[in-house]
Specification:
- By secondary structure, the protein is an all-alpha fold.
- The chain has a single domain, classed as lambda repressor-like DNA-binding domains (434 Repressor (Amino-terminal Domain), Orthogonal Bundle).
- It has helices spanning 22-38, 43-50, 54-62, 71-80, 85-89, 93-126.
- Helix 1 packs across helix 3 (54-62), helix 1 crosses helix 6 (93-126) and helix 2 (43-50) packs across helix 3 (54-62).
- The radius of gyration is 17 Å and the shape is elongated.
- 20% of the residues are buried.
């Protein structure tokens, strides 16, 4: 497997205890989000049952700040999503492909809004 730190944007690199696991964190978070939404559960509902804040769950689902998550939280999330812990943690090739598609769309949106904001500021200067 190629080094995931080479494919991720720079602004995501310094938020992991061990950057070589960055892609795994992000794909696990995407898997949690996908399972949760497929069950029609909101972030608030899942966070309340697991005993964490909604903002922490959001960070977990984004793969941002997930390093150091307790195994108890992982057990509770798996239980609430009606999957075994091994199913939740087992990231297959298709999970990575799905995660990468999701991330590509996300980064395209971020870039679009960055360019739109830059264009807005340029137009504002002209007025």
């Amino acid at each position: 497997m190629k080094d995931p730190t080479l494919t991720m944007p720079a602004y995501r690199r310094n938020h992991y205890q061990d950057p070589k696991f960055q892609q795994q964190y992000m794909c696990l978070g995407h898997k949690i989000s996908t399972l949760r939404t497929s069950m029609g559960i909101s972030q608030r509902q899942l966070a309340d049952v697991v005993g964490i804040s909604r903002s922490y769950l959001s960070k977990l689902e984004c793969g941002y700040g997930i390093s150091g998550v307790s195994i108890e939280v992982v057990f509770k999330i798996a239980y609430c999503l009606n999957v075994s812990t091994s199913q939740l943690l087992h990231l297959r090739t298709q999970d990575y492909k799905s995660c990468n598609r999701h991330l590509s769309k996300h980064y395209e949106r971020v870039e679009f809004f960055r360019l739109a904001h830059q264009r807005f500021l340029e137009l504002k200067k002209r007025l």
